[in-house]
Write a structure and sequence with these properties.
Helix content is 37%, strand content 19%. With 171 residues, it is an alpha+beta fold. The protein has one domain. Strands 1-2-3 form a 3-stranded antiparallel sheet, covered by helices on one side. A two-stranded parallel sheet has the order 4-5. The two termini are 33 Å apart.
Length: 171
Amino acid sequence: MQHSLKQILVLQKNLVEGAKTRRSRDGTWAKKGNETHFGYKLHQKTDIDYCLIREIETTTASLHDSQVDLSTKDEIVLRDRGYFGAGAKGIDFTMKRRTSEKPLEELDKERNRLISKLRSPGERPHAVIKRVFGMGRMLVTTVKRVHVELMVTAFAFNLFQLCTLKKANFI
C-alpha cells in the first residue's frame, strides 16, 4: 500500500499535533538505589525454550514490576527477589529474600541459584534491545506511542533471535 507525500505529511502533522511538546507527558520518575530514571518500562514475557518475546506491556517508570503480571494460570513464573511477596497468576517460582527476622537457609539459597540460572536468559532481550538496537531512550511522548515502538522492537528482537538460533543450528 503506497501513500502519497501529501498523506504522509498529514499523518506526520497529526502525530506532531497530538504531542504538542518534546517533553514526555506520560513519563514518570522512578528511583532505584541512588539513581533516578524518567520514562517508561517494558514488561515482557519470554519463552524459556527459544528466548522469544511472547507478550509485552508498557508502563511508566514509577510502576513497580510486581504490579504487572503477564502469566497465565498454569504457566511457570520465574522471578527475581524484587517480586518477593507479590502473588502470580501462574505457578510461582519467585526467588526467596532474607528478612530481618529470618536469614535464608541453604535450601533456599540453592533454590535461588537454580531459579537464577533458568531466568537469566530472560534478561537477554533487554540487553539486545538496549545495546544492539540502541533503544535505551525513547523519543516519543506518550505511553501509547512508546508501546507501539516497543512492539516493533519486540518483533525485531524475535527476528534477531531466530537468526541467532538458526546460526547455532538450534532450529
